[in-house]
Design brief:
Length: 438
């Protein structure tokens, strides 16, 4: 019989680690047991992700459509407006890199009817591939009789970056990870960095947007040079939140990167495709049918969606009457600032109607719960009801109008207490988990 200390020791010795808010090293927060997850729903989510990945590619081929969908939001939301302006400015630049990479993550909640329902699509906020792989191996080690699927998210995302690097065709070039200056989750990133070197002998440099603004140049041939090294691929692990752009210098850095010949992961266009407004738009039948030619894929996607609308006075009144049945979300990807219950009421009642179109009103998924205990910072919590959110990674390497490489690339399972509106691990809401398929 093993103890919780053995689980903690295993986590620490196998790199399942992160920094806490005081910058102290600790094991990543994890569940003691893998959580039961219906095998049929897991397979449904895999098929749904495959079809959504194709839809995402189709969207990337229609930039005028993406721009037109985001323009109403850009009139209200400054962050969206800046991203659109950067994209349109970059399009006028003489250097054009036709190759773009998406390391995507499609996030799902398990509904009360045991169906996977789409929560969001992430293009930059698609983290934890490294620690998710470590979590799977930990649970497989301690519970060998459970039906825990193998998880190759770390290897597959590294392979996606390596394929993009090879497409650049410069053996001495490096990959640049764009990171936050104070990155508590950097060990998750280090696992990818180590795998890139061990398997492909590709070197990685790490820079914040501020450092890029100070140290990066684009030479007369359009090549991106940082710290005297040519950069083949720019992998954004920061840049999806307004806080990543405190001054004009960070915006200038983002534009410089976009105007270079380095392959961006994601490009500004793919980043824009991941906005909540785009998810809301393709959730509507006319656009979904336009973007999905395959009738079988259309049915799969329709079954995985919930009602999601742009906030307006009419649906705001409905939400005020049933605030626990809805979630209000800002237009960008990633967690944070979601509002439900009393927070939703307060926001709707104190926000000018003119600001409504920047927000998305989503039907709250009545999720299935499972009891589990949690280990966080060496402390074991008692068993409690948790909600699990399944993230499925996907790699999409595009050159102009064709797909060079794509794959379904492993998973991340995060679990949180039922009273938590947010799902972020770094925010202290969720913990790493593994699915026991039943």
């Amino acid at each position: 019989m093993f103890t919780t200390q053995k689980i903690i020791d295993h986590a620490l010795s196998h790199g399942l680690i992160m920094l806490d808010n005081t910058q102290q090293l600790t094991h990543a927060p994890i569940t003691v047991l893998p959580s039961n997850y219906p095998n049929t729903a897991f397979k449904q989510a895999q098929q749904l992700s495959q079809d959504l990945q194709q839809l995402f590619f189709t969207l990337s081929q229609q930039p005028e459509l993406v721009i037109s969908l985001l323009q109403p939001v850009a009139k209200i939301d400054e962050f969206t407006r800046h991203l659109l302006e950067l994209y349109q400015t970059a399009q006028q630049h003489p250097y054009y890199q036709p190759i773009q990479l998406g390391l995507l993550r499609f996030d799902y909640l398990l509904s009360s009817t045991k169906q996977a329902k789409l929560v969001e699509i992430n293009t930059i906020a698609s983290s934890f591939a490294g620690l998710a792989t470590k979590t799977t191996k930990l649970h497989q080690f301690f519970y060998p009789d459970n039906n825990i699927p193998n998880n190759h998210s770390l290897a597959q995302l590294s392979l996606g970056l390596a394929n993009a690097w090879q497409s650049y065709q410069q053996a001495n070039a490096v990959i640049c990870f764009v990171v936050q200056s104070q990155e508590n989750n950097r060990f998750d990133q280090y696992h990818i960095e180590a795998d890139l070197w061990q398997r492909f002998k590709i070197k990685v440099i790490r820079c914040s947007l501020s450092e890029i603004n100070q140290q990066a140049t684009v030479n007369p041939q359009g090549k991106l040079i940082i710290k005297q090294q040519e950069v083949a691929v720019v992998y954004f692990r920061a840049g999806y939140h307004p806080n990543d752009y405190p001054t004009k210098q960070q915006w200038q850095a983002r534009l410089l990167l976009e105007q270079s010949l380095a392959i961006k992961c994601p490009s500004l266009l793919l980043h824009l495709c991941g906005k909540k407004k785009i998810q809301q738009a393709f959730s509507q039948p006319p656009l979904l049918q336009q973007l999905t030619a395959n009738s079988k894929a259309l049915k799969t996607i329709e079954a995985g969606l919930v009602d999601i609308q742009v906030l307006n006075p009419s649906n705001a009144e409905l939400a005020l009457k049933n605030p626990d049945n809805y979630i209000l979300k800002p237009p960008r990807e990633g967690g944070g600032h979601n509002k439900t219950g009393q927070a939703l009421i307060n926001f709707v009642q104190h926000t000018p109607i003119e600001q409504y179109p920047a927000w998305i009103l989503m039907e709250k998924i009545q999720a299935t719960t499972y009891d589990n205990a949690v280990l966080r910072q060496n402390q074991l919590s008692p068993k409690q009801a948790l909600i699990s959110e399944l993230g499925l990674f996907g790699v999409l390497l595009i050159q102009s109008n064709k797909i060079l490489y794509q794959s379904q690339s492993g998973y991340l399972l995060r679990s949180k207490p039922i009273n938590q509106a947010e799902g972020g691990i770094m925010a202290g809401a969720s913990v790493l988990d593994s699915p026991n398929l039943v």
